[in-house]
Amino acid sequence: NMHSTVQNLKISTGKMGTRLTTAEHHIADIEDREESQVAKVKQLEEAERSESRSQRNNICIVGFPEGVGKGNPSAFFSKVLPDLLHLPENLPIEIEKFHHSLGPCPTKEQHPRAFIVKLLCFPTKEKLFRAARDLGPLDWQGHKISLFPDFS
Hints:
Elements: H1 2-55, E1 58-62, H2 73-84, E2 95-100, E3 115-119, H3 122-135, E4 138-140, E5 143-149
Antiparallel strand pairs: 1-3, 1-5, 2-3, 4-5
């Protein structure tokens, strides 16, 4: 009787050891997956920060008709924006990149596409937004013009 009890305890202890080993393996697998997920989240956060930094100087300009500044849009906006916003003509508006928002070229009846302008200097962007906010509604040759931060 005592011998069978000891035998049963050995079997139970062996089963518990097996279950404990299995549980430890599962925990190790979960920890490995968690480390992998944490690394992926860090990569995504860095990519998002990088994208946000690259868009920090972008402005979205809505309302200019299609085709304005066709030959040299950077020069066009460097000249028109100070006039439109009543800023000093010598204010350097250095444009790093310039493009239309995505989409097909609209017909005459449709609204024109927005312009995305990446300025070289963040303070210039702030001056443009402050002037636009102070002036209220903007009008250029009969077109209502609006400036927005680019969050695309």
